[in-house]
Amino acid sequence: MKFRTALLGAAAAFVLAPAAHAERGADGEVKVFYYQAVSTLNAYLSSGTKDVEAGSLVLEPLAGFDQDGQLFPRLAADIPTVENGGVSADLTTITWKLKEGLLWSDGTPVTSADVKFTWEYCTAPDGGCAQGAKYEGVKSVDTPDDLTVVITFEGPKPYPYQPFTGGTAPILQKAQFEACLGAAAASCTEQNSKPIGTGPFIVTDFKVNDVVTLEANPNYRDPAKPAFAKVTLKGGGDALAAASAVMETGEFDYAWNTQINPEQQKQMEAGGKGAFVNAFGTLVERIEINMTDPSADLPEGERSTVKHPHPILTDANVRKALSMAIDRQTLVDVGYGGAGRPTCNLVPAPAFQASDNTECLTQDIEGAKALLEGAGWTDSDGDGIRDKDGKKLSIVYQTTVNPVRQDFQALIKGWWNEIGVEVELKAIDPSVFFGGDAASPDTFQKFYADVEMYANNFDGTDAEPYMAQYLCDKIPGPENQWQGENINRFCDPAYDALVKELSGTSGIDARGALVKKMNDMLTKDSNIVIPLVDRGRFSAKSNTLDGFVMNSWDTELWNAQDWTRAK
Amino acid sequence: MTDTTIQTEKPRGPWGDVWAQFRKHRGAMAALVMLVLLAVFCLIGPLVWRIDPNFIESDTVKMFKMRNQGPSFAHPLGTDQLGRDMLARMMFGGRISLAVGTVAMLVAIFIGTAVGVLAGYFRRIDGLLMRLTDLFLALPLLPLLLVMIFLFRDPVAGVLGPRLGTFLLIVMAIGLTSWMQAARVVRGEVLALKEREFVLAARSIGTPSRRIIIRHILPNVLSPVLVAATLGIAAAIITESVLSFLGLGFPPDFPTWGRLLYDGIAEIRTYPERVMWPGIAISITVLSVNYIGDGLRDALDPRIRGR
Amino acid sequence: MLSFTIRRLLTAIPTLLLISLVIFLLVDLAPGSPLSDIPLTVPPDVRQRMIEAMGADQPVMVRYVLWLKQFFWIEPLYALDALLGTDFAQGAQRIISWQSKMPVMATIAERLPQTLTVVGTAYLIGVIIALPIGIYSAYRQYSWFDQAGTFFAMAGFSVPTFFTGNLLILIFAVNLGWFPTIYDTNLEVVDWESFTKMLAQMALPVTVLALFNAAEISRYTRSSVLENLGQDYVRTARAKGMGEGTVVLKHVLRNSLIPVVTVVALGLPTVFGGAIVTEQIFKINGIGAMLINAIHVSDLPTVQTVTFIFAVLIVMFNLIADILYGILDPRIRYD
Q1: Which candidate, A262, A248, A298, places its Cα nearest to that of A441?
Q2: How many angstroms from the chain centroid is the CA of residue A422?
Q3: Whole-number Å distance between alpha carbons of A343 and A336
Q4: What are the pLDDT digits (tens) for C171-188?
Q5: Which of A170, B62, B141, C247 could form a disulfide with A59 if both were Cys (CB 3.0 to 4.6 A apart)?
């Protein structure tokens, strides 16, 4: 008996040994590949997700999101709630406490002044802060002592966790960035490329849009971490090359966003050097319906505006038929494989706000035909295209240039032809489509087409700003330089009332119920939005990298301090 | 040639001589046959092989069985990732690519030769034309194409209809952005040619410039022009695919060789044959044009003719 | 020739100014926006503030004049400061990239070495193999050597570098594992080991580019030599009993070089400009990759600066070509 216990003890000690003896920098170098190269490490000046993710190795927020979308403290001691008194009962203030003894990588202490400064930095006029939305509605940030931060909002904030949370809102060091406020932000080259942070690594060399070299932060709060002494973060090329560098040649340990087609996924996995990791968040590939008439015959300035309702797509039966004709599982099998799953929801996650809407998952071509027939859309002239009152079911379907999207276009065009809808396809350069240039006719906001396909999501787990995009007063048009977010030109007073209700509702379940209701209004009830695929994050990880946990709610490098080299 | 052949054959003009010489060039004849076959394949082929290049089985179970097939009797070149017939796509794509390649090359060569000859021959406009060439060489190609198509797409489509409008615009865009090399090369040759004895002789007896250019200069710059033309046709086919890639070319359901090649590259690891077909087709086109160019040059050179 | 050179250099100044203006207007007019990569989660009012912070909402002529001042006055001051350790610039605003908020000139300096090593080597090798192939192909026209040369040259040219590059990576890097697929820009050559590493990572891109360049140059050389071989002076030289080597290499070659010089002069600026496609495929991240990336995100200051430097080189090399014409064929005169 004694002997066995001793043996077990020894075995346990043996198993635990690596953890107990873990030592900072013991595992050498880890090589990370971002096919979109890193431009800056300052998330507030970033031009894309890749910059935010790279910056998160160095800079940290007060709290981050874990793999389940739950907030967990990073620089904060704990998460303030109404229950623990951290959030005031009237929901207008939130009080964060910093961990004690935190040091910046240069050895100076982290104080609440740094947090306050970060808010000032992002809200300074002429600074062009990319994360301004995170600090919207913040009236003031106060620092009663070195470790306490009190954020006061302009009104009750049912979701008070926007400021200083997640990789998009990290804390900057006041001493380093003091001279970079406002218009000076862009000329602080040294600061933006080599920020002083609290994260597990510090930057040693930064080659813009190429490669970032980092080494372990000697002042990181956990003395045993990070296990890697050096990080090389290389960029350039495309997703296929990125996947290959991890899965086939083993040159890299981890590659971000390796979105490749299912056959290639299988082939790469056969390489045996790594595995794909995925996690589902809120990114949904969808078809958006234009409720206004995009006809080129209308005078410029009136195309796709509320002045002219769409001649055919305002018929709810047509929209429903378009949705019924699509086989979403096939789309996933052709285009995404492990990186996607079919969905009928605009808000697919987290669970508390995801509707249980699954009706659209089975394709029903015959049902779609019958629906159109019943609604009076018949093929009266025998050309294979249905018509009614002299209006043909003929639509222009646009999206960006992207191989998966072109395959989707071809497949969906086939199904729609089958139910008697004529489809003209258009593909636009993504930098033009998403560019928002008011002079270009091809932006997704201008929507000079009948339907368009792209993907969208929301930051973090709170869907409120996302649902608010469909408000009547957010319709883009010439009067607001086509800058609205309600690109469907959808307008329903009942929906607007729900958005208002959400902004005054607290409590996770009540909010979730409202979001579900709004989600259903936009999708299954009206088919204004036709969701297709819930797109997960999809990256490649080498078999020799341990401790990697995929996260779709924060940056994918969120737990780089826990990475180790597999023995 | 002996007297008997002259008696048995009908008298023929200078072009008859050229044709007779051309026919002796075996490489050129073979190339001509290849090119004609390729054109027949693209133009007549779809009348025989009646599968719609964009046909996708709407029944998804069947569609999945049809995907990514290798060459078979039903699909001699296999099928693509959506089960579309590659042979039909190659034929359909060839029409566009051959037309775009040829016309765009002719536009580029015409502008290039005209600018090159004028700049080389007339010193007064040399500076101006060459600075214009420098300007075009310096302009970044992508924004230039983007702007041209952005500005002219709707007006041209309004006048000529969307299909012909797109074609014309693409051809002009490629032609207008690729004439500079031909212009520089031709000008260099002309600078040397115009100091040669036969040009000086022609000028000294008062031959007008127009006549000197047409009779003496142009025939002698033919070989670099032909090289530029053969290289230009390949470049034009590839540039067209770049345009499609930017969403500026034909609609996404219009296959062209360039686009098939691009799409095939992404599949090179899984289905290498899919990149081979368009690659081979483009190579055959370019090789044929090159040999025809060689043959033409020999046939047009009076010193070689009759050798 | 000297007065011609000076005159051309002087006319180059207004030409380049005009070119810079045209480029600026062109890039500005192109659809697209510097915010196209920003996630859609960023709301419109924040986007508007970002545009204002970049200065992208200023009238185009204001931005152009500012760029002129930065390029011709402030950047040289910074260069001077860096060389002499002085402080003439006194913190004046440099040309800053809209995308990365980094000085464009610093980025160019960072990227020039890898572009020059890879593309430069490739061009050099291309010219070195193209000239003999072109000359011998013409000299033995329609021999098997000529036929093979023609075939490879045309195949090399008709199949674009994005095809050959990917194919070579697949065969030699992925399947055989001889070479890396990703170029390491941090690699410094300090000893034998790092030197072999450098050679290994340069091998594939250099092969692809050299083949492509050689294909083009050899075609022009062949056709030009062919043209000259039929000339009367060749017959005369042979009749006088000159050796074949002298005839071909001394007389024919010299007279055949004009189109070759033109093509090489047109190609040399691309050594600086980088090979856009090849750099992308092999992840070299040189000037070419920088330019294409900047074009995609409508980073106007970067596009403008890189393209303008490129324009200067084009004008310069074309001038050099014109001077070389006069040396190769003394009958060409510009005065």
Answers
A1: A298
A2: 34
A3: 13
A4: 898 888 899 988 888 888
A5: A170
Q: How confident is the model at residue A415 (pLDDT cuts 50, 70, 90)?
A: very high
| CA distance to partner chain A, nearest, from residue C276 (Å) | 11
Residues of chain B with Cβ-Cβ distance to A407 below 8 Å are 81-82
Q: Which residue has the tokens 């119920």?
A: A513
Q: For residue A1, what pLDDT band results from cuts at 50, 70 and 90?
A: very low
Q: Which residue in this structure is represented by tokens 């930095």?
A: A121
CA distance C84 to A248: 49
Q: How far apart are CA A33 and CA A191, in angstroms?
A: 23
Q: What is the pTM of this model?
A: 0.86
SS3 assignment, position B293: helix
> Is the separation of the CB atoms in C126 and C212 below 8 Å?
yes
Count Cβ atoms within 10 A of the Cβ of residue B294 and give its class: 0-12 exposed, 13-18 middle, 19 or more buried.
Answer: buried
Give dist(CA A234, CA A226) in Å, integer: 20
ipTM exceeding 0.90, yes/no? no
What pLDDT, on a 0 to 100 scale, did the predictor assign at position A14?
43
CA nearest A373: which of A420, A416, A314?
A: A420
pLDDT of residue A6: 47
Give the tens place of pLDDT for each residue, C223-234: 888 888 878 888
CA of residue C104 relative to chain centroid, distance: 18
Instruction: Count CB atoms within 10 A of the CB of residue B246.
Output: 19
How high does pLDDT run on average in chain B?
83
Strand-pairing partners, residue A215, are A202, A230
Residue C51 one-letter amino acid: I
| Partner residue facing A430 (CB), from C36, C50, C51 | C36
Our measurement of the distance from residue A415's CA atom to the centroid of its chain's CA atoms, rounded to an integer in Å, reads: 30
Q: Tens digit of pLDDT for each residue in B150-187?
A: 778 777 877 777 778 888 888 888 898 889 989 988 99
Q: Do C142 and B27 touch (CB under 8 A)?
A: yes
Contact C181 A437 (CB under 8 A): no
**C39 contacts in chain A (CB < 8 Å):** 48-49, 457, 459
**Count of beta carbons in the 10 Å neighbourhood of residue B4:** 8
| Distance separating alpha carbons of residues A67 and A90, to the nearest angstrom | 30
Q: Which of A258, A263, A399, A404 to mutate to test the interface with B (most CBs of B within 10 A)?
A: A263
3-state SS string over A461-500?
CCCHHHHHHHCHHHCCCHHHCCCCCCCCCCCCHHHHHHHH
Bridge partners of residue A414, in order along the sequence: none
Check CB contact of A506 with chain B, cutoff 8 Å. Answer: no
- Collapsing DSSP to helix, strand or coil, A395 comes out as strand
Question: How far lies C10's CA from each of A202, A246, B272, C262, C266, in Å?
Answer: 50, 54, 54, 22, 21
Task: Dump pLDDT digits (tens) for B126-153.
Answer: 889 988 998 888 888 777 887 887 778 7
Nearest to B117 by CA among B192, B217, B228: B217
Q: How far is Cα of residue B21 from the mean position of the Cα atoms in its chain?
A: 24
Cβ pair A207:C45 closer than 8 A: no
Distance CA B227, CA B182 (A): 9
C254-276 tens-digit pLDDT: 888 888 888 888 888 877 776 77
